[in-house]
Here is the input.
Amino acid sequence: MSSESAAPLPVPLFDISRQHEQLETELLAALKQVCTSGKFVLGPDVVDLEKRMTDLCGAKHAVACASGSDALLLALMAYDIGPGDEVICPSYTFFATASAVTRLGATPVFVDIEPDTCNLDVAQVVQRVTSRTRAIIPVHLYGQCADMEPLLGLARLHGLAVIEDACQAIGAGYQGKSAGSIGDIGCFSYYPTKNLGAYGDAGMLTTNDDALADKLRLLRGHGMQPRYYHKLVGINSRLDSLQAAVLNVKLPHLERWTEARRTRADRYTKAFTERGLGEAVRLPVVRDDRKHVWNQYVIHVGGERRNALRAFLADQKIGTEVYYPVPLHRQECFSYLGYGIGSLPHTERAAAETVALPIFPELRDDEQQRVIDAMTEFFQPAGAKHALSGPNFMKARDGAKSDQRI
Ligand SMILES: *Cc1c(COP(=O)(O)O)cnc(C)c1O
Here is the structure.
């Protein structure tokens, strides 16, 4: 091992500063323009962003709001969802998907995922529909759309709303349609780590329904229309012009960035396959009828090895993350719902096995090569037994400990 002699270049999971450097002049000019205009809330930059999002998603309306979490909340509010209602969603997702439901006094009904894509399993949804079910929230996890066609069929049959959690899937495609224009309402996040990231919190709702769009617009601004006359009890989820200005500068680059993510995803998949890692590692699966936008490149590593791999990569200064280590049905705050261990087996297995590797448009080739080489070293397909019990494993464990001290 020569890793002691020369400190390896760190490979971050994500580096937000590189995009800023590329566009700094334009971004600062746009921010300055907002500052001098004095129009800090909603205003022309937000209207502009909404217009661009309708074009991008092929949806008739786009309504900006303060975050992806608020978008989910507002979507459910638009359907007057509340106590006694059930909303079906995956457990293997970010917290906000389900907290929006409980925030309104309704009950999230968690269903299991397809083990390969980690998206909602429609066959499981069918079994969980009751007379109280009002909506389904498919999550387009990691940037790949859930299987919307059978889900929409089921929803129409039972009169349920379909709210797409497209927070990780801006620009993703399903059978020629764009995420956010397939169901009744689409919810987007511009949190800085998403494919289109603001400089703080920001979100968007999309819909093809005129009445829903009007209601969402009302709800995000305290239900006020005209000023100081309130038709509904809404919330304050107005978008800042500063965030919209940043997003308007970045949005024209999104397609190129998505393409760069795809190139990097393909490179990982090709390299791991060629190096024979396919046995020890389950690589991401992309369905034929979908356009994946690769918010994350997530592999599955079975058993004890997942955490050992993460420690080994951390020791080599390579960033990884687990999305998500504790599925929502096993979270303390949702224990009252009574989902025991083993109740959603594919979800629980994914939580134990998934690892996200560095993927972002500005990830350099030499950096990605380091990840590929480190992965190969860990799994050593020629003598794979080493990885668990050999020196690498011990080194990895020590590495993890020393990292914690820093
Ligand atoms: C990021 C994310 C959200 C929440 O978006 P915020 O803008 O952070 O509130 C919701 N759902 C999923 C799947 C996400 O990835």
